[in-house]
Please model this.
Amino acid sequence: MKQLRASQARRELCRYAASFYHRGWMPGTSGNLSIKVADRPITLAITPSSVDKGGLTPRDIFLVTAAGATRHGRASTRPSAETAIHLALYEAFPTCGAVFHVHTVHSTLVATRHVRRGVVTAKGLEMLKGFQTLAPRATPEIPIFPNIDNLDDFARSIKRHTRRLANVPGFLIAHHGMTAWGRDAQEAEKHLELLEFLCHYLWEMGDPARGSVRTGSCTGRAGTVSARLCGGRARPSSAATIGHAGADRAVPAGRPPSRG
Ligand SMILES: [Zn+2]
Model:
């Protein structure tokens, strides 16, 4: 994918932020979006923290590197506090060109309901074919991270869980929302839409634990909707981010979550 120039990326981020805001996906100044504009060093255009995402202008967008250097952006604001999470994803997946994090109602509901299972999926759901990173007929398993408030550890956790995260370009965060990425902004948007469709579908389908749909298990039995259960504990842990509407903080965990 051809990288955008910084000026193009800043305009694109404003456009996507406005779109997501008007869909109700970035309420209350929440969420953060980035587009990679250079590889050496990795340089991102990223939205500001604690600023309404419905009316951003290119001047609001920061350019940052892993070294913390920043350019542009307004003096009264700062880059998303979750910049480290974005950088970790770009470092883990060299083909990643855009990372979008939003707070949708259905992703929050589903992640919160299934966080103890650590992963959620929907076998045979046609929409999931949109995840082109999957092998033919593979069933995507979307990781769910607890909403742990530990920003510094989160970026390291992303690297530890690179293999797990490679299954599907996105993850859910309990009590919080979801993050997706792609080779460019258009693909990252598509992956967000697929995850949101999945979460809306699962929520409308009902709670597998109540019997409205059959559930799978660690032994491999699978139903229409499955949530992996391994001894009642969450899968390899992970971590999650942010947690508030307004102050985008992020944090992951590397060990089994202390809560969730
Ligand atoms: Zn968030």
Helices lie at 6-22, 83-92, 105-114, 151-160, 162-165, 185-205. The chain has one domain: 6-251. The chain is about 30% helix and 20% strand.
